[in-house]
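A note from the maintainers: we've had questions about how concatenated examples are separated. There is no special marker in the raw files; a new sequence line simply starts the next protein. For clarity in this README we add a label.
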Amino acid sequence: MNRSEAFQQYQKAYKSGQKYCRACMISGRYPYIRVLDELIDESTLIGRMDLGVMEIPTELIVGTKHAERRLAFAANYMPLLPSDTEFAAKWISLCSAHLGDEGINDPISCYEYMGEFYVQEGHKRVSVLRSYGAAGVSARVVRLVPAYSDDVRVRVYYEFIDFFALTKLYTVHFRRTGGYAKLIEALGYEPGHVWTDAERQSFSASFMRFGEAYRKLNRDRLPVTAAEALLVWLRVYKMPDMKPMTMPELTKSIESVWADIRLLAADEPIAVETEPPEPTAEAARRGLLTRIIEPLPGHLNVAFVHAFRPEASQWTSTHDLGRQYLESQLGELISVKTYAPEQGQDPAELMEKAVSEGADVIFATAPPLIGQCLKTAALHPDVRVLNCSLSMPYASIRTYYCRTYEAKFITGAIAGAMCRSGRIGYVANYPILGVPASINAFALGAKMTNPDARIDLRWSCVDSSPVADFVREGITVISNRDAIAAGQASYVWDWGTYLRREDGSLSPLASPCWDWGKFYERVVRSIMDGTWDLSAERAGERAVNYWWGMKSGVIDVQLSPDLPSGVRQLAWILKRGLRGGVIDPFHCAITDQSGKERNDGWQWLKPEEVLHMDWLCDNVEGSIPRFEELLPMSHSLVRLLGVYRDDLPPVKEEKLAAKQEEKQE
């Protein structure tokens, strides 16, 4: 390149810098490169790390170490000084060398702070390279390490440091904690695996293509990083799937999960629907217009996909009872098929089979099927997919569960009324979302009828014989596992709340029970009458999570015929109050185990606050078990729905088959 061509390049870069600077000023952004010395206090740093010479992304070079270079460059590192200055002459000389025989070989010197780079020496080299769109530059890097704090940015940065030590990648960025570990897991690597050059190059090439496609799609400028979008994509696809894809095919695959990517930008990604939607006059009018354009279905093919066969699982059996109720209510308006795995069969395969056989609606009745639900929804957007789980931030599917704590409040009140010793045993199953709310509602119900009642809390996922322990300790009123469905309770050691009499015999008191058929009927009817869209309308661009209570009929309390008449009458009063919305278990003065006031007695807790409770009332003796205390059989469910799921380290497992295939190529 001769000097005349380099001069023209400078003029082009100069205009770009001026334009960028003006745009920043108009939008209220800082127009110049940032100055590291003004951003940090050296006393807040805990160390420096010499990382040596490496290739760094030019897009992450955001500033300068010292202030004297600030006004020479716009924030995009394009020059701001006129072409007749000494600065411009040196820039032009470097530009000529860049495309000449010599090239720009000397590495720049820079500092890395919080994942971004600040140049100490080599500003013009960076500017020249960026004017040509160079992706990287050789740099001698010194990392400045901030003191650890509760600041989310600092916590994420510390996770990045660990990620970088394994991968030597600077291009992967997350805004929230846990992202780097989840990416490692999603790619099939064990925690602590050090990437080879081949693994790094393979990922970088695919990630670059993904980032290019994602940025073109992100017309709304969502504050979602390419790495965060990739994690959503990896729920449906695998990294090797990207290699044979053309760019239009890759773009289409990202579009298939775009609704879930968009949720990452939302402050509240989940809309918790606590009651079935009732159509308003305006909604009915709009629904009529919709039906003219797109008629509502007169017949639906409904599929139920289970993780276990009904005869092998009482949980599945309950949902199958719901299926039978649905068929009895809607008759010829629907065709229903049930898919349950044979021994050794992967239940995830069944969902694709359901689609291939014409399913319009799929109810996946177990939380572990959530992954396949997401894949099905992405690959078959015309199929409505629902998964029986809680608090899932996915707009492409809907989740459903019920407010068990309302029924637990009633059984707690019954237990308090029937208890003479003041100690009530409570067996909880897993420390998952909604369970602390059930424990607390039970404790508050017991306190209402017996102010001195203490709830002795044990966990079946930790101790294999909590009921036997209660018996040895002389506890006579015990709340054990709930009846799965009305009529299924045997009222022995396994189900419900019961009283142990002096002769050792057991007397049933009450148990929460589910009637999933009511839910399935309401949902299917909502699709057929057009009110299905009301939930999406209410939610906006958030995920729809159904969390219905006693008013809907999905959850109820089965009362023993042997209950004393006064206690039975109290239970019915509480039932009517909960169904009518005039009673709320948590609309009262509440203090937790640490003495912290959780409610002064006048506040109504939001559904999200109840669902995500991770504390226990002051009349509960016991605690929420740590993950390492749990029996192995409960790990997968707690990872999926646990109250502390976002803080759990990734699973240490063997590399995925896809990873093995990649190594063989």
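[label: protein 2]
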Amino acid sequence: MKLHIFAAALAASSMLLTGCGDKFQEEYPWMMGDQGSIDTEDEAGLGAKDITVLEKELRGAIPFMLNYSHEPNGSWQPHKYQYQRANNVDNYAGYWTTSKGTFTFGGPMPTLYTPDNDYLGGPIDNQLFQQSKNAIFAATELGKPAWRAIALIIQGYLGHELTDFYGTIPFTDWRNNKRVPPLTYEKGEDIYKQIFLDLDEAIAILKAEQPSASELEKIEDPTKTISNGDWRRWVKFANSLKLRMAMNIVNVDPATAQAKAEEAIADGIGVLTDGDRDLAYASTDGHKSCIYQISVNWDDIRLGASLENILKHFNNPLINVWFDGFQYPITEKNTGIQADKSIYGIRPGIAMSNTTNKERNYGPFGIVHENFSTMSQPFIKLSEVIFLRAEGALRGWAMGGTAQEFYEKGIRLMFEENKVYAQGGELDNYDVDAYINQETCDVVDYVDPLDFKHNTKGRVSIGVKWNEADDDETKLEKIITQKYIGNFPMSAEAWTTFRRTGYPRLFPVYLNPMYPDVDYELQIRRMTFKETTNNALEMASAKEALGAGGAQHGGIKVFWDNSDTWTRGDKSDDNPSNTIEARNNF
């Protein structure tokens, strides 16, 4: 079969993943790809015999690590990003709030906590697995084992994220490109174990093969490169991912978590470190980022109240670097009071109107700044790795430095990478030391200048300055809260860390009458699969893997989630609490 036919088949299969304005596919919405129409002889298998075809397949697979691809001209695909991130994970992290109640596709969603709202299945996509299958199973035989290594890394990246989102995926069946349902959904802990093994294998292969820059060009588009011609960058990707995954399981398997984290640091090449750039796709000249398109041009998302509140609590200048707002006056709907000029975020869970524009409703609230119009799209940021090492050191792990050293380094990097205190930056000569040395910070209450009924008391009371006299829980909260800021806009990692630790102290969901299985303090714990009349066997497999007694709603916890240790007080805004009474290792 000719390569262009293979590409066409993949393009057709990707249509199952809908974007704004597209028709939603009802049959198997979580089973992306043409699972049943390709004949059993695997017409798309030319890459299993031809290394040139395999390399082109792998080159096409890499952009799907974030579950959405790029247009042929190099621009982002904002429709896919909106369906797969902006209308779900970005909100659950507290970074953004979707500011409309209906779109031109999918069902109505008075709030994002309205099941089934046709958006909960957004991030799940197995097209990466389809396009990398031959690299997994044929590259070594064709004399290019390094391509198997890279395929293992990208499958591990997507696989661990989707496991974190849903709690279970058919990881092995996807890898084997099984096309005839039902697929077998696997337990999250088993998927993690397999990915750890895959990452170790990938690291060993790359160290042995050491592919040249010219070889890497065969599988990486120069405008969307991970390695920039250096195979060691792929090793750092694998080790940094190991470190992230190790921390995710710290509360359920602390021994394995420590062992995997220390392996990643002790490796001769190791994780991202000083002088490394983020593992990210650079923006292509002339093309606006997905977030900019969705926020500014479509008016579909606005700054989330939790991030607004945290930035204002610390008087962090990044709020003015990342966001813009108040293009039009905001008047409180009941009192007629006009708001002070500022950048405002929307509280999660409030009922949205069907239309939002810049002139009215929540339109004048925070949009993304022009600074982010051509942002790079990160997979793993250096700042995340630095803060992970701070948390590991706090837990007594061998991270190559102290918790305070990594914590303060992460904060400095947060400002440096946003050019806040560089000459000619947004804020010339900003005093980062003064920020780091804030012993205490005033608690900032949240005010919704459009409707005061959404007001709530501030939750974050910690300062920034590292104090060895603090207990470990306070130190952890400081690390996670500054990491939350520094990792923006990486919502997947932020949501996972919030579910794992309870930090930062996000505002509770305001209105949640239509999702009785989700506690508005704990918030949504996993994304759900859309159940139809066609997928009873699939759902039975997924529910068994989740181990939740035949359910798969959004209140079910993924395998690493032990949030039963959270102390939630009486759930009132007068007594907010996300503290954790007991945690392994603390």
